[in-house]
Design goal:
ADP-ribosylglycohydrolase fold, Jelly Rolls, 9-stranded mixed beta sheet
Length: about 725
């Protein structure tokens, strides 16, 4: 492989490998990725001819969405990146560890990516290989799966983050990308991942598109078909620089779908990416519109182009028309439901923190607290960011009210930015709310794209905090209070109400009480103007920060939960995600069963640490009936439950369950048992019906945080009447 020398340029700090504008460019790059997925999402698989007949010249989004549901192009990057947290962030990380990361965060056979069958879907094939002991990189190899499977497009669509964590270092980006891509792909399928990651890394320090592409070529074999295709497209562009459609005809004739096996081969789609980068001439809108017009695997191709040009141009290079419909929201469909509700600034922070860690550098002072998790969760410091906040109002009068959200530098107390909220035609005594959705239902989406499911991200027992300001030149006063909304009954729970003194930031706090049978679907701030009935002006407020934290304290009876119907084949128990098995509600109880491997479902926050988890367990069939705790994914958790030979067993799941300790306990089918575990640090106390039966300290790489859930083994069938969780 040839090498490319990357010379520092003006935006690189002296003595640093990390560009001074690195964090903002990560935000722009990931935003470009999400824009690209949304732009191409509903025309994936369309031909150029069909797109042209339908839309003519594409100049903007083709579809409107309530909220854009999950997609494999964004699932893969954000969750595979967790390998650097779960194992090591250094270049010593292995393909095998990255394969374990896939097993940990992808549900088994649903959601996350396309489950098209062994030998048809590359990712499904690799997943089954991994699950059955064929470790990476063999899991994705040509030797194991053949050229047709190994050289599909997935090797590059999941890869953007490896360029984002290695700014200005295409070789390092390609090294990470090679290991990750090899979990599922090989040959040109792997080279594509290396190429895209290197291009993204180079885009941090280079504006020239051809030089960015050369950085990508520098990390893959010069004699590969991927390189040959790229050189051919470059050559055609230089000879015919004015008409991208002529170039696409060349691509169709020489690198079209008809020349390659499989469902979605990497070479035709990569040719479209290279074409779009060249003919887009560095303009974000032009580049992604050309890419979408070419058709084929539109969301994947446009997303890769969006990341590269997003990084190259920065946030100012992305027109607001692309950003506004997204509103910083990202839906995912991993096995961990509380990780499936994220915002793009959170993603940028997570990625950037790893970038500095890899480089061995300290983040700049203004970003240090944010990257270290010491600032409020929602801080609005990224230019233009909204953190997916939304507006609603309750007016008693028949007046037309509109509201807007805007990132602002007018007022701030921490940092330099805040969220500006404007309601017009406000009435005294009416409620005007700005909030973050903390749980989503099927009706919040247009479709069931990649089968998302959720657990709430805020729970009873936790606390909310916010800082708000009403400007002193507005001429009105306003009261403000924090609130949460229960999605089961539509009820609101409020914190203390305060008069916001004009021109000064007001601190609001609310300790959510312990509650039963709720799921919190909104957390926000309610403003009430203190004006007379003749006021027809606007309410303007600034939110400097918003945060939630603390331990849960709540109880659920399953007779008050529901099945959420996405499609006839996608049904979820409210508040739960599942790894595998049949999980439903029967006779007002949670029911779980499966024919062989462990059936598992989860709820709660992945970051919960010390807590008491209690559930009423009713064995129906079989001999293994468990509750789960400290769940960090499909292959990292503890379980405790009723077991064969009248025992209670504590298990640890390390890509397979093993017994840690067991004790005798007489139990029978069809009887109910209250199982409880207290997990504090690495020490666990287990009781059944109030009697302590196990006390155990795990000194072998213990799991110190994680969700709660339920499971059974070996074809068992279990019912659960309800459960409670209380922080310790």
């Amino acid at each position: 492989m040839s090498q490319i020398n990357v010379n520092p340029i003006s935006n690189v700090k002296k003595g640093s490998r990390i560009p001074a504008d690195y964090i903002e460019k990560v935000y722009a790059g990931w935003l470009g990725k999400v824009i690209g997925v949304r732009h191409g999402g509903n025309v994936e698989g369309w031909s150029y001819e069909r797109l042209e007949r339908t839309y003519g010249e594409i100049t903007g989004y083709l579809h409107e969405f309530k909220n854009f549901a999950a997609d494999d192009d964004t699932n893969g990057p954000m969750f595979f990146l967790r390998a650097l947290e779960d194992f090591t962030h250094t270049s010593e990380i292995t393909a095998e560890q990255m394969g374990l990361t896939l097993l940990n965060y992808a549900p088994d056979g649903h959601g996350f990516f396309w489950w098209g069958g062994y030998g048809k879907s590359t990712e499904h094939t690799a997943y089954l290989n991994l699950k059955n002991g064929i470790t990476a990189p063999r899991s994705g190899s040509i030797e194991q799966n053949g050229h047709a499977v190994a050289e599909q497009i997935g090797g590059q669509i999941f890869i953007d983050v490896w360029g984002l964590v290695a700014p200005g270092n295409p070789q390092l980006a390609a090294e990470y990308a090679s290991k990750m891509a090899s979990v599922t792909h090989d040959g040109n399928g792997k080279y594509g991942g290396e190429f895209i990651a290197a291009c993204i890394a180079q885009a941090f320090v280079e504006k020239d598109i051809e030089k960015i592409i050369e950085a990508g070529l520098s990390v893959i074999p010069a004699d590969s078909e991927y390189t040959r295709m790229t050189r051919d497209v470059i050559r055609f562009y230089k000879e015919n620089p004015s008409n991208w459609r002529d170039c696409f005809k060349f691509v169709q004739a020489n690198y079209g779908y008809d020349r390659y096996p499989g469902v979605c081969h990497i070479i035709p789609n990569s040719a479209v990416i290279v074409l779009s980068l060249l003919y887009g001439e560095g303009d974000f809108s032009q580049s992604i519109n050309i890419c979408n017009m070419c058709g084929w695997d539109t969301d994947c191709n446009v997303a890769n182009v969006g990341t590269i040009i997003g990084v190259r141009n920065g946030i100012e290079g992305i027109d607001p028309s692309w950003r506004k419909p997204i509103n910083d929201f990202l839906c995912c469909s991993s096995v961990i439901g509380s990780l499936n509700i994220v915002d793009i600034p959170w993603c940028a922070t997570y990625i950037s923190k790893l970038g500095y860690l890899i480089a061995g550098e300290e983040p700049p002072g203004e970003w240090k607290a944010i990257l270290e998790g010491k600032s409020p969760r929602f801080h609005f410091e990224y230019p233009g960011s909204t953190h997916a906040f939304r507006l609603e109002h309750q007016s008693k009068l028949n007046v037309h009210i509109t509201g807007t959200l805007q990132n602002s530098e007018e007022y701030s107390e921490i940092g330099t930015r805040s969220l500006k909220v404007v309601f017009d035609n406000v009435q005294g005594g009416d409620a005007y709310r700005v909030y973050h959705k903390t749980y989503y239902k099927p009706e919040d989406f247009n479709d069931s794209r990649y089968d998302p499911s959720f657990s709430p991200i805020v729970y009873p027992g936790q606390s909310l905090e916010a800082k708000v300001l009403v400007p002193d030149d507005l001429g009105i006063r306003a009261k403000a209070r924090l609130y949460v909304k229960d999605g089961n009954k539509g009820s609101y729970f409020y914190g203390e109400e305060k008069i916001v003194e004009p021109g000064k930031f007001c601190s609001l706090k609310y300790a959510i009480p312990a509650l039963q049978d709720v799921h919190i679907e909104e957390a926000g701030i309610e403003f009430v103007p203190v004006v007379d009935r003749y006021y027809t002006g606007s309410l303007i407020a600034y939110i400097d920060s918003f945060d939630f934290s603390g331990s849960p304290d709540y109880e659920i009876n399953f007779k008050n939960e529901r099945m959420e119907h996405w499609t006839p084949l996608h049904l979820e128990v409210s508040q739960f995600t599942y790894l595998r098995g049949i999980w439903s509600l029967e006779d007002g109880e949670l029911s779980g069963s499966y024919f062989g491997e462990p059936a598992e479902c989860y709820t709660g926050e992945r970051e919960w640490r010390d807590y008491q988890f209690s559930a009423e367990v009713k064995p129906k069939l079989g001999a293994h009936h468990n509750i789960q705790f400290r769940v960090q994914g499909g292959i990292r958790s503890y379980a405790v439950g009723l077991a064969p030979n009248h025992e209670v067993v504590l298990y640890k799941n390390e890509n397979g369950y093993r017994s840690l300790v067991s004790t005798s306990y007489l139990w029978d089918d069809q009887q109910s048992y209250r199982l409880m575990v207290e997990a504090k640090d690495n020490h666990f106390i287990v009781s059944v019906n109030g009697d302590k039966v196990i006390e155990y300290t795990d000194i072998d790489n213990p799991y110190l945080f994680g969700q709660v859930g339920f499971s059974n083994f070996n074809g068992s069938h279990t019912h659960y009447a309800g459960f409670s969780v209380k922080g310790l």
